[in-house]
């Protein structure tokens, strides 16, 4: 099998790709060259059809096709990232006349299984590289480079995971050095249950952070356990080294500024673990102990023991846990959408025979004061009874 891979657009100048939260031309090369390496490791002959510089957009396209058509290719693949002003999201693949090629369908299914919306296989007859290439061709729009959800998920997964999905779609299996551990290959329901049971047990024992919040964080930060950190460092949360004395994993960090723009920090050190359970427990320890003034104050003090998931999510953002401007709202939405509060229920403590747990709102000598307090509670949705008791 011989496959031509084109890392979409030039590196600069004419033919340069879209610029959104991330730059298309940079990431087509990260995904594309990773894909080439994976295909070659599986014995596939790869032709690099990438063009870094050209005099014009048309010259770039013509040169890409010229390289592809000079070889007897079985398949031509062009890697791109979409853009739509921030409104669109998801993966889609373009083929000639919209043919539902097996490889194209597999790419859509493979990338969407990582959490992206599946926009399907569409007609790309108007696209130069699809129309002019002699070999069977597909142009892959991995996701939208100007959509905050897509970029956040893409960054958490890492370009290697996208390359794996495409490689698997084309040749039927992921390269051996990137194959996921069997015990980490969970469905979304299994992932929720796994994190939820550990988080609930820890909540019942230590009352640090609500299980529903922990689950939502793990989903968001690890892409359902499929992120680069989750797979290579057993880290379900993006916690930087910050005084950690254990193992670390080095990768780029993507941060958001207060004005909404993004920037990256190379060679960031992240905490790494032996397994996912260690990651969950250390995340809770981090929330309980993180201090930036030698222990005089706890950074996440409002979060600790908070039994209102909405407030806990807001406190996390207010205390600077993440730079994402939508971090809290995305957690709250995830908790509500997936009914994660089922893991927040506390173990019941039944009173022994002859005893009852008594809840008393207040006691007054003045009936008017008692009525005023009762009315106040009623406005808050709490119904009360006023009854006179003898005071011994």
Question: Could you name the key traits of this structure?
Answer:
single chain, Lysozyme, six-stranded mixed β-sheet, Aminopeptidase, 2 domains, alpha/beta, 392 residues, elongated, two-stranded antiparallel ribbon
Could you characterize what this model shows?
The protein has 392 residues and is α/β, with parallel strands linked by helices. The protein has 2 domains: 2-178, Aminopeptidase, CATH 3.40.630; 182-343, Lysozyme. It has helices at residues 24-41, 57-69, 102-112, 128-132, 148-157, 159-171, 188-206, 211-222, 228-233, 276-289, 309-318, 327-338, 367-379, and strands spanning 2-7, 45-48, 75-82, 91-95, 118-123, 137-144, 248-256, 262-271. A hairpin with a 5-residue loop joins strand 7 (248-256) and strand 8. Helix 8 (211-222) packs across helix 12 (327-338).
What's the number of structural domains? 2
Order of helices and strands: EHEHEEHEHEHHHHHEEHHHH
Lateral arrangement of strands in the main beta sheet = 2-1-3-6-4-5
Oligomer: single chain
Specify the helix fraction band. 25-40%
- Tell me about the biggest sheet? 6 strands, mixed
Uncertain parts: 173-183
Q: Approximately how much beta-strand content do the residues carry?
A: 5-15%
Kindly, what is the distance between the CA atoms of the first and last residues, rounded to a whole number of angstroms?
Answer: 93 Å
Helix count equals 13
Named CATH architecture of the largest domain: 3-Layer(aba) Sandwich
Number of strands: 8
What does the overall shape look like?
elongated
CATH topology of the largest domain: Aminopeptidase
Q: Give the radius of gyration.
A: 27 Å
Name of the CATH class of the largest domain: Alpha Beta
- Look at the helices and sheets and give the structural class: alpha/beta
Query: At the fourth CATH level, what is the homologous superfamily of the largest domain?
Result: Zn-dependent exopeptidases
């Amino acid at each position: 099998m011989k496959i031509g891979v084109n890392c979409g657009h030039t590196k600069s100048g004419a033919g340069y790709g879209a610029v959104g939260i991330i730059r298309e031309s940079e990431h087509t090369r990260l995904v594309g060259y990773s894909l080439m390496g994976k295909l070659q490791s599986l014995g596939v002959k790869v032709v690099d059809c990438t063009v870094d510089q050209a005099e014009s957009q048309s010259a770039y396209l013509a040169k890409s096709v010229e390289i592809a058509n000079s070889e007897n290719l079985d398949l031509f693949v062009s890697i791109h990232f979409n853009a739509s002003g921030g409104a669109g999201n998801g993966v889609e693949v373009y083929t000639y006349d919209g043919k539902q090629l097996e490889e194209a369908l597999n790419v859509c299914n493979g990338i969407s299984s990582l959490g992206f919306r599946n926009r399907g296989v569409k007609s790309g007859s108007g696209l130069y590289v699809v129309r002019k290439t002699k070999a069977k061709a597909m142009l892959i729009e991995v996701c939208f480079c100007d959509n905050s959800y897509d970029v956040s998920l893409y960054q958490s997964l890492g370009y290697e995971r996208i390359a794996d999905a495409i490689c698997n779609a084309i040749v039927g299996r992921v390269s051996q050095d990137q194959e996921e551990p069997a015990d980490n290959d969970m469905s979304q329901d299994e992932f929720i249950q796994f994190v939820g049971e550990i988080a609930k047990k820890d909540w019942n024992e230590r009352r640090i952070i609500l299980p529903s919040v922990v689950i939502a964080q793990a989903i968001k930060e690890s892409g359902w356990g499929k992120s680069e950190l989750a797979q290579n460092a057993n880290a379900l949360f993006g916690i930087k080294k910050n005084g950690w004395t254990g193992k670390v994993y080095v990768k780029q960090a993507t941060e958001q500024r207060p004005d909404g723009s993004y920037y990256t920090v190379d060679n960031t050190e992240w905490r790494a673990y032996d397994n996912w359970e260690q990651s969950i427990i250390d995340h809770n320890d981090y929330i309980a102990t993180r201090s930036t003034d030698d222990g005089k104050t706890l950074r996440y003090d409002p979060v600790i023991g908070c039994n209102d998931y909405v407030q806990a999510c807001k406190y996390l953002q207010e205390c600077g846990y993440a730079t994402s401007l939508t971090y809290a709202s995305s957690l709250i939405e995830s908790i509500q959408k997936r009914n994660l509060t089922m893991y927040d229920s506390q173990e019941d403590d039944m009173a022994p025979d002859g005893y009852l747990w008594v809840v008393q709102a207040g006691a007054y000598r003045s009936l008017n004061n008692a009525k005023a307090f009762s009315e106040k509670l009623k406005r808050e949705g709490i119904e009360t009874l006023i009854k006179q008791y003898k005071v011994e």
